């Protein structure tokens, strides 16, 4: 913009000065200079060309100085605006609540926390190797640097090192693993050639997410945004791991690890008949599901969500349908709710009561104002606990009275504002139900935290079966190593091909 001002000023001054200097020979005053028709007898009336040149240069210099002065003022104003503290900007509702003394000190001084460690992960002893990817804040406005990454997607960079050659990917033509509003997921096989000999070729089972309509540019953009978010989130044993992406040409695909048992909601419903309170572990040869497994799932989901807070990333659509389960009973949180950023807000206001509605997992402030924060994720977590300890029942089913002539979300919001909540599930004791109610406080700032939920369910696990808890800890560390191998898959391939 500053360059345009300079160009316009210089061009205008040149034209004006030229016009004025040339017309000085045409009239006896300024006004008459632009009106009179030149006559041959008047061409040299005011002197020779030296006078014209002096006048031209003088006028030109005045306009140049004026243009430079204006540009300096504009630049100084912009510089001062950039230096405004982040807490004076709009949108402070997404700033994360500091939890530790060090964080509180940094927040109070308006200091931006250090960026997460680079992608990929490095394994750790106590935290199961949780290390988020690096974030690109080079062009990010100061007021957004503390915001969740899904509120500053356009400032995130896609990492070229995770780009996959489409020729090395085989996508199954069979039944899709799943589909949603904008994307479809299929099983695939990624080839990694450790040598030029085809006999040594190895293949990795993966899940491939692509636009529902590959020619729809909005869907392509949503897939690409989700890919950038997954790059930024990094890896954690309770978060779905990214393997790579395809972004060449018009293609937009996300290649992630394949989780064999599908979503946790379907898993619970399939195993209702095999549920037993005394069963401590799932046995493949004799399928069964125990109460301690439900506690383990609650613990793991809280661990994954606490990790997202420190990325930071707001999930927006936490529900058991978006939680996957492996054969070893380790869960992965998937689908970071990016589709909910789409301009079509009717997605939240579906009129049908016969299908699962995202609104049933949403906090009141999300329903009313479309405000999503870590506190709204806590509310959704409480609904997940209801799903867990009811073995997959649909929340609010046949509970909320609904008039088809009006918006369904209006009735859900009124129901919640009256203080009504989901009933205590059959397999949740009083203490677990109390945790659920703490998640559902109307005052978002009074809700419990994921850290508190982790501590509660860890204690429950140790009390029920300390051996089970130790075994789960070993599994999570093993999953960290497995995810590290996923990160090395592409680097090994590129190293061998070079």
UniProtKB/TrEMBL annotation:
Keywords: ATP-binding, Cell membrane, Kinase, Membrane, Nucleotide-binding, Signal, Transferase, Transmembrane, Transmembrane helix, Tyrosine-protein kinase. It is found in: Cell membrane. It is a single-pass membrane protein. The keyword rRNA-binding does not apply. Gene3D superfamilies: Phosphorylase Kinase, domain 1, Transferase(Phosphotransferase) domain 1. Residues 1-21 form the signal peptide. Residues 171-469 form the Protein kinase domain. The keyword Kinase applies. ATP binds at residue 209. This is receptor protein-tyrosine kinase. The gene is old-2.
